[in-house]
Design goal:
mainly alpha, 11 helices, globular
């Protein structure tokens, strides 16, 4: 059998079925990924361990997808080059840098647009806290540093798995990855909910947020052909979300249920509009 050693060209439209090895690979990797994250959370469910320990371990946990997929790859696909299939290259460099800029604009723009609209509707108030200016200056430098950790996730999700699902086209492959990515985070968010440090409604909103953000992260992978813009998109998403919602508006935890869900209805509408625009950008890129 001929083995493919380079990541496939990502096409907007479906171009056929998955490789014959993919269903088994994805099943084994998926079960292993869920098993590992559940195993990490079980001690917190079964005892009174402080979930702050889990928060401190987040950078290490972000490397779980890389480690699991690398092990499954070495077991099931030893003849295929892991790094190339994961799209770790940056050529053409100009496209990679431009797409990283798109990622920056999207993940900075969506929270700011959401705040602007919800504040104008009276759902939240602008509440710029002391030190917000300094925090704003740190968002981009910290997002670059945080790439050290998001690299571990994205080499798995938008690198190896996105290449594997490439025959399904942009929308289907992104939806599958986004759904699994959101489910993979559930044991973690449920741990916080069970301890009482995260309200149940935050578990729901976080899950939907991850699903929607996944489409945008997959889009920059498609637009660039490289995993690096996805690595940066994930990092800036984490940094900007913490900054914007922690420094610029009424704390979401203080909102009543009606205002809370109205806020996220606006946020998700903004996300859907951005995702549709990114999807069209992927489609146009394929035609050029």
């Amino acid at each position: 059998m001929t083995r493919v050693n380079t990541a496939p060209n990502l096409t907007y439209a479906p171009i056929g079925s998955l490789p014959d090895w993919a269903p088994r690979f994805l099943t084994v990797a998926g079960i292993a990924l869920l098993a590992v994250v559940v195993a990490v959370c079980l001690p917190f469910w079964a005892s009174d361990l402080d979930s702050a320990i889990l928060s401190s371990a987040t950078p290490a946990l972000q490397w779980i997808p890389f480690v699991v997929i690398l092990v499954v790859h070495a077991t099931l696909r030893p003849g295929m080059r892991f790094w190339r299939w994961s799209a770790i290259g940056v050529r053409p460099l100009g496209r990679t840098l431009r797409t990283t800029g798109i990622a920056l604009c999207v993940f900075v723009g969506v929270p700011l647009a959401t705040i602007a609209v919800t504040a104008s509707l009276g759902l939240v108030d602008y509440t710029v806290i002391d030190g917000a200016g300094t925090a704003a200056l740190l968002v981009i430098p910290l997002s670059i540093v945080w790439m050290l950790f998001t690299f571990g996730e994205e080499l798995g999700w938008r690198g190896y798995v996105q290449s594997t699902l490439a025959p399904l086209g942009f929308w289907r492959s992104s939806a599958i990855i986004g759904a699994f990515w959101a489910v993979w985070h559930l044991p973690l968010t449920l741990t916080y909910a069970l301890e009482g440090t995260m309200p149940a409604r935050d578990v729901v909103s976080t899950t939907v947020n991850l699903l929607l953000a996944a489409f945008a992260i997959s889009a920059v992978r498609y637009l660039s052909g490289s995993v690096w813009p996805a690595v940066y998109a994930h990092a800036i998403m984490n940094m900007m979300g913490q900054f914007a919602y922690g420094n610029l508006v009424t704390p979401l935890v203080d909102l009543g249920d009606a205002a809370y869900w109205a806020f996220f209805a606006v946020s998700w509408t903004v996300w859907i509009l951005v995702i549709l625009l990114l999807g069209q950008a992927v489609r146009r890129r394929e035609r050029t």
